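User: Predict the complex.
Assistant: Input components as received:
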Amino acid sequence: MSRPDGSTDRTPGREPLLSVSDLRTVFYTDKETIHAVDGISFDIYPGETVGLVGESGSGKSVTARSLLGLVDEPGVVEEGTLEFKGEDLLETGWAEYRGDLSIVFQDPSNALNPVYTVGNQIREALAIHQGLRGSAARERAIELLEAVGIPDAPRRVKEYPHQFSGGMQQRAVIAIALACDPDLLVCDEPTTALDVTIQAQILDLLDELQREEDLAILFISHDMGVIEETADRINVIYAGEIVERAPTERLLAAPEHPYTEALLNSIPGRTPPDQRLPTLDGEVPTPDGPAESCRFAPRCPVAVEECHETPPDAVAVGENGTDHSAACLLAGESEPEGEQ
Amino acid sequence: MTQAIEPQETDGQESRAPLLEIRNLQIQYDDSSLIGGDPPVRAVDGVSLDIRRGETLGLVGESGCGKTTFSRALVGLESATSGEILVDGTDLTELEGPALREWQRRVGMVFQDPQESLNDRMTVGEIISEPLDAHDWQDQEEREDRVFELLDRVGLQEEHFYRYPHQFSGGQRQRVGIARALALEPEFLILDEPVSALDVSVQARVINLLEELQADLGLTLLFVAHDLSLVRHVADRVAVMYLGNLLEVGRTDRLFDAPANPYTRSLLSAIPGSASPAPDELGEITLRGTPPNPRYPPSGCPFATRCPAKIPPEKYPDLSAEEFDAIETFRAILRERARSSSGVSASLKRRLGIGTSVRTVDEIATELFAGLDLPPEANEVIEDARTSARSDPAAALELLRTEFASVCDRDPPAEYVVDDTGRTSRCLRHREEYDDPDEI
């Protein structure tokens, strides 16, 4: 896949499972037009985890919903291609691929239907996506609950969502998502509502499932620590645009975009306790028009005049073919930290 | 603001006089109806703790561990079942009416979600002056001046006085919440997850503001949070809560550098990412399951059902970790079964012979113990337990409990001082005869 910036995602010879190209999702309200996702491109290969990290309002969740055809009124996916297994989902629609793409949302209690047993909901997915019914479906439902680490699954399968704790509910949601036998699992802040101990359990689980099933995962989070632990490659999203992309270790060690750097710096663990936390003024802007300048420029500690006049293109900054690009006019010229 | 930091023989945190002395505090919720015989929920189960003047005390633990109940009790919003909360020699739990209101004036509270804790129909000015009105503070004009002063204090502008909360960003709303908490010049601020609803870049600004305010006003802070990295950054001391009990309390640097209690160790190891404040040698400890129901806390150590460092049964000191784990898992399942089969409908089902799927307990046990080479005596007991589990999971549980009893299932751990700064930890492994938790 070649891009406007000339970058290619890794692994030549292996076809991406999903190739997102120049995706644009716009919300039309009476008052304004919001370009929530404004020209996003990335690839996901089978068996890998791609991280999408950004603050609230950056367009992460709209991206997730766009991939699954779940954008609600007044939102419209206006442009771009979502090439999945060689077909553009925006043209073919999702009907044929419903089970191939699954999503796990942040709040498990919203994702489960309170009036049906957990087993019922898993079996429904099994019937729709795998044509399993009767005792075969019952057995598979128990297996799935066991696979997601729910103890005493044969009994739990008959229980209602309210009888599950938050962590257990999220496991059940993952079991339902797996009942669809997906190739791509989109996880939108799947552990944000959970305690760290339970979060660790769920992250272990996802890791295990991925290795067993060669599952591709798009992992969306605001938490750099979680993204770091799960993702092979990271996309940093800001005001509807991907501002930086790199393999995980590289991004953490050598961020090129000032926003990525600011995001990393604001992690409390990166600052010694006796020092003030570094701050970033302002808030993520709402992209209410086409980009006419760098959207981060008003908050950027190193912005120059040109940044307020020209929207930056993503430029490749990787060494030796590393897929690392940053949408910053200053990227690649010199180390950003040298420009304080 | 008057500030009473009394320097004593040593400098540092230890020398500060306590603002609050909490002694064996218990808070139980008894919501059983006339026919229901459920035991009460033990939300706070015997907590003793000093909160020292001018310090920031971090209170951490998983959701449902009792952090919020505990902190609400400190302002008289929860009534204690037993125990004392002493302020200058007065027991808060006994206060009522004007005396309680007088104490509440000295405490400010900031809540997690600024979206929900601010009334959207009131202007920011009205919200901030609400506590002033409620406590009949000075006259109208002076209240207004005070509000403008507070707006400035928390980094908001004068014109924000007339705006409504929904016109504000999350970070600004939390500033409004802080301004309101500061209105009556409290000496003590309770911050219940004050920044967990905020983005990281905004979080940092609110934290810096709180640290500034503390330094300028000499405030004592109770910082309740689940984000341990943040607690590491802001707190002087940390209290780790589990199932209504404090399992470890001590200086932040010591607690993070060398966590003494197995639960603290597990919590720290669960923090994701390379910026985690956990010591490297901790490795990855994944806890099984979730905390037990506080209505039915374990009889020994509260953490025993999930503890990765649980002391092996006295009868089988040489059990491998795997074998011990299989037995513990089997017990956990039976415990669940026993509970669900104690209700009226379950006993009715049993009499009618409908029973809870018996076969599956057997299946689970077969799977759990497959490939394990347990001592013959142990195997015999497990077989017996499997048989009796068919009709009576509680009896099966009792069999296992007797045979595989660990001291952790029996004795509630006392508080042990674990370093030279007076840090304490509740864990039976601190007894001399056992290996310390960090040697496991």
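The first helix of chain A runs from residue 60 to 67.
Let me know if you want any component modeled separately.
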